[in-house]
Amino acid sequence: MAPPHPADDVTEHVGYRLKRAAAALRGAMDKALREHGLTVPQYACLELLDERPGLSNAELARGTFVTRQSMNVVLRGLQDADLISRPATTDHGRALPAHLTERGRERLHVARSAVYAIERTMVEALPRRRLAALLTDLDRMAEALGG
Amino acid sequence: MAPPHPADDVTEHVGYRLKRAAAALRGAMDKALREHGLTVPQYACLELLDERPGLSNAELARGTFVTRQSMNVVLRGLQDADLISRPATTDHGRALPAHLTERGRERLHVARSAVYAIERTMVEALPRRRLAALLTDLDRMAEALGG
DNA sequence: TTCCCCATGTCAAAATCCTGACATGGATGA
DNA sequence: TCATCCATGTCAGGATTTTGACATGGGGAA
After folding, report:
1. Does pLDDT of A70 surpass 60?
2. Do A14 and B48 touch (CB under 8 A)?
3. Could you tell me whether strands A99-100 and B84-85 are parallel, antiparallel, or unpaired per DSSP bridges?
4. Structural domains of chain A, count
5. B95 in Cβ contact with B58 (< 8 Å)
């Protein structure tokens, strides 16, 4: 019964593997999305807005794991490109609900196919039975760390 | 036989879960290492150098999934803090081998305990049998993406 | 009502990282 | 030998992200 840590090699640790996989995914998405004129945070933002229209800046930030300030500049970029729309003011509260424009929806749909191809490559690389377990394991780790 | 993608919900995708887990880990390490005066890339660099002394800038960059240029500034910071040493010139070749100083080794050892505690939290959050499979799955995905 | 607390949006400054580029040293093949 | 190619270290510039801070709006408790 070997203890989970410390392993004899740093590259054997879970954190290292996690970072490696995340870096590989990020790199692949970066490259694919560049051809569509989008960055990874921008794409994540569009995808989230397509699924849940009306999300605010802070909510989008939490959903994409960045700070409010970072998401703010992302939204500005998307707004300048006419991919999303956001009211200047609101009747109730302070949160400004964002929505996809028609251009945004179209752009998302074409970029999505490229991203889904990447994800399919990832998923097909592992045994089909293992996928569900992998997802729950990732969730468990994230929750354990307060993610 | 449902296709692996597209799922009905973006947050169900592997990429999203992967990013979430990686972000949670990054945040926890960030917070823990700050108390030791280290950033995550700096810690990763020290850990790699402790295991394989003499690694060059480019090798360290590949090992930590950043660019040569980024690793260069990390090394400068570590050098200014007297945590690593690097010769100004070399007899053979162009790569400059880096080594931990005594201070660097000490700093690494105390920071390591904090990081290992985080990783232990992560590992203990999932069934013990699942760990090995998780590691190989992460590797498979990374390799499939050319990581 | 009024006060306090929290969340939100935003600004400014700094830190971090990446892209593009260039010069150097070694190795490979003609 | 020499020329070409690859990897490395480094510089400059810009883009992205974060930290810190501040003002505003809403909700809850006294």
Report:
1. yes
2. no
3. unpaired
4. 1
5. yes
Which positions of chain C lie under 7 Å from any protein Cβ? 7-13, 16-21, 24-26
Specify the pLDDT at position B49: 97
| Angle (nearest 5°) at CA A73 between A71 and A75 | 70
**CB of B47 under 7 A from strand D?**
no
**Could you tell me which of A66, A64, A131, A117 has the C-alpha nearest to residue B14?**
A131
Q: How far is the CA of A93 from the C1' of D29 (A)?
A: 21
Q: Does B147 touch chain A (CB under 8 A)?
A: yes
Residues B141, A130: contact at Cβ < 8 Å?
no
Q: Is residue A56 part of a domain?
A: yes
Residue B45 CB closer than 7 angstroms to strand C? no
pLDDT at B147: 80
- d(C-alpha B145, C-alpha B139), whole Å: 10
d(CA A147, CA B23): 7
Residue B14 within any structural domain of the chain: no
Which amino acid is located at A130 in the chain? Answer: R
- B93 CA → C23 C1’, Å: 14
Owning domain of residue B118: 34-144
Domain membership of residue A4 (yes or no) is no
Residue B88 sits in a domain of what CATH number? 1.10.10.10
